[in-house]
């Protein structure tokens, strides 16, 4: 029964992250024409927490897990602010990937999603925020699904993850740019946006590699020690 219960919780979490949140974004774009983006962003922020809290257990360990997620989100937000003067050179995707590797898919999604809405308090909220929350969230989710509870990735795998993460972020955000400008998805227009964003894509992918190579080892070492000491993120 406990195993079945865990599977049900996991299925609910997956449905929220991969079905409910994308549908909510579609609702915001086509039904509300991006006019309710603040409301949509807040609902996405709440939904991104649900997969974590449905497996949350009362006690010190649950509270400690929340603290670790909050700290990772804070590092990501501060990193984006610190490197704001340098276009396309930001550590958000790298830290989100690290969060997924260290804490798991649900927590990785949560860190990426919350980073977008919190950091945009400083960078400016807009119709792009819900989609940005989903994109960074899904990058954290995928990294957790691929690497969590496996051997710590070596520098070559981390470099590949950084490149893929940077390219994926740019390609997915260009989907929003196309829909926002055209009112619907136009593949030809999408390709033109991808073409014009290639310099940004290249710079962002390189920055992800740099930040992962610099930050992954100290972050993962420290987080793994905390996980072992307090027995958290063991499910």
Overall pLDDT metric: 88
What is the overall number of helices?
9
List unreliable stretches of 5+ residues.
none
Query: What characterizes the major β-sheet?
Result: none
Order of helices and strands: HHHHHHHHH
CATH topology: Arp2/3 complex 21 kDa subunit ARPC3
Fraction of helical residues:
over 70%
Structural class: mainly alpha
Number of strands: 0
Determine and state the CATH class: Mainly Alpha
- The portion of residues forming beta strands comes to under 5%
Shape: globular
What gyration radius follows from the Cα positions, in whole Å? 17 Å
Name given to the CATH architecture: Orthogonal Bundle
Domain count: the total is 1
Cα(first) to Cα(last) distance is 16 Å
Describe this structure as you would to a colleague.
The protein is mostly helical and 235 residues long. It has 9 helices and no strands. It is globular. It has helices at 2-31, 37-53, 60-82, 92-103, 105-123, 129-147, 155-182, 187-196, 198-230.
């Amino acid at each position: 029964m406990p195993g079945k219960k865990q599977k049900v919780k996991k299925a609910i979490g997956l449905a929220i992250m991969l079905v409910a949140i994308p549908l909510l974004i579609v609702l915001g774009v086509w039904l509300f024409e991006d006019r309710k983006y603040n409301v949509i962003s807040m609902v996405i922020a709440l939904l991104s927490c649900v997969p974590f809290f449905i497996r949350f257990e009362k006690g010190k360990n649950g509270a400690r897990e929340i603290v670790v997620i909050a700290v990772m989100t804070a590092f990501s937000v501060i990193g984006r602010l610190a490197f704001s003067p340098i276009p396309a050179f930001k550590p958000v995707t790298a830290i989100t990937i690290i969060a997924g590797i260290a804490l798991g898919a649900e927590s990785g999604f949560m860190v990426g999603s919350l980073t977008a809405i919190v950091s945009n308090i400083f960078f400016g909220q807009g119709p792009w925020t819900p989609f940005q929350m989903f994109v960074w969230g899904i990058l954290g989710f995928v990294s957790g699904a691929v690497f969590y509870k496996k051997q710590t990735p070596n520098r070559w795998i981390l470099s590949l993850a950084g490149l893929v993460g940077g390219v994926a972020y740019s390609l997915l955000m260009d989907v929003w740019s196309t829909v926002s400008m055209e009112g619907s998805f136009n593949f030809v227009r999408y390709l033109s946006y991808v073409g014009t964003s290639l310099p940004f894509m290249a710079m962002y992918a390189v920055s992800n590699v740099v930040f992962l190579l610099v930050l992954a080892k100290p972050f993962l070492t420290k987080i793994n020690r905390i996980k072992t000491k307090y027995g958290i993120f063991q499910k």
